[in-house]
Amino acid sequence: MLLDLSEEHKEHLAFLPQVDSSVVAEFGRIAVEFLRRGSNPKIYDGAARKLNVSRDTVQHGVEGLTYLLTESSKLMISELDFQDSIFVLGFSEELNKLLLQLYLDNRKEIRTILSELAPDFPSYHSLEWRLDVQLASRSLRQQIKPSVTIKLHLNQNGDRNTQVLQTDPATLLHLVQQLEQALEEMKTNHCRRVVRNIK
Amino acid sequence: MELSEYVQKGFQMLADPGSFDSNAFTLLLRAAFQSLLDAQADEAVLDHPDLKHIDPLVLKHCHAAVATYILEAAKQRADKSTLSTYLEDSKFDRERTELFCTEYQNNKDSLEILLGSIGRSLPHITDVSWRLEYQIKNTDPRSHPEISFSCNMEQLQDLVGKLKDASKSLERATQL
């Protein structure tokens, strides 16, 4: 699978052949460091001064490189595909080799970082409940309206997420019945077989 | 139950056989209940040929008065004697009082449901769907508009256990 590089992306990367390969290697190091720790804009200023170019040029160069590395790592493209993808940039063979090496050296770590960044599905943590009876409202006096208030605690991305919900007695019994069916289903031969045989 | 002069005046007009004959009275009474309970009802509810001879302003006044009274009575859970007292004070004859009380009794439950449904509440659970998934590998999670969450066997047992506690508590409360 080849990477599809946008015109803007190619423009940003066009800066790389204009500097020493040691600088490109340094940019690569900065890019991965930014992925690990977050970006530090001051670094761009320092580099811009040393290389005698605008800060924007440096920033785009690093960002372009970062994006190249993350996209490649995310898709886990092969060496050959990586080389073919950057071939369109028209860089020197030396630079191409350097970029490939950067990719191969860092892709495992980049994938780990990316997986930590991806939002995950909320998962159940716990549940609190409370029985309430509404006795009256502004619109109607002398009521007996039972309800069950539920505080659902979910985990998402390591954070606790809380939902406060309500239901009526009939629906509560329905919920219990439905979810007990789910538990029952887990005990069937079919499910047991799947769980046993697919590891 | 405190009612405004406007309502009292409306009832006094409604009591007068000179302004409303039996038929017109019954029609207006039914129109008032219909306006409140029928979601599709509109002003046309007063467009009956047997009401044409009555001054539209009077019609509207009485219609509004009756509707107001009905809502207040339903809200306060007024009993038959409260209704009768008010109607007799408004100079309703025996027949009209009986008719009013009967109509009210017939529509009382619907009115209470209507009034009871007005108000704010927390998001209300209406149903649940579940899916058993054996995770072989991680795929990209998708976002769901409703509340969705995953749980393993233990967590599901915990969730069901807690909901069962709640329903047992509910059962006990109804037996008190």
TrEMBL record, chain A:
Q: Residues of the signal sequence? A: none
Q: Which InterPro entries match?
A: COMM, Commd2
Q: Which residues form the COMM domain?
A: 123-190
- Lineage, top-rank taxon, reads Eukaryota
UniProt xrefs under Pfam families:
COMM_domain, COMM_HN
PANTHER family, per database record = COMM DOMAIN CONTAINING PROTEIN 2, COMM DOMAIN-CONTAINING PROTEIN 2
The name on file for this protein is: COMM domain containing 2
TrEMBL record, chain B:
Q: Where does the COMM domain start and stop, copy by copy?
A: 107-174
GO biological process terms, semicolon-separated: sodium ion transport
UniProt xrefs under Pfam families: COMM_HN (PF21672)
Looking up PROSITE patterns in the UniProt record yields: COMM
Question: Of which family is this protein a member?
Answer: Belongs to the COMM domain-containing protein 3 family.
Report the protein name in the record: COMM domain-containing protein 3
The lineage, from the top, is: Eukaryota, Metazoa, Chordata, Craniata, Vertebrata
UniProt gene name: COMMD3
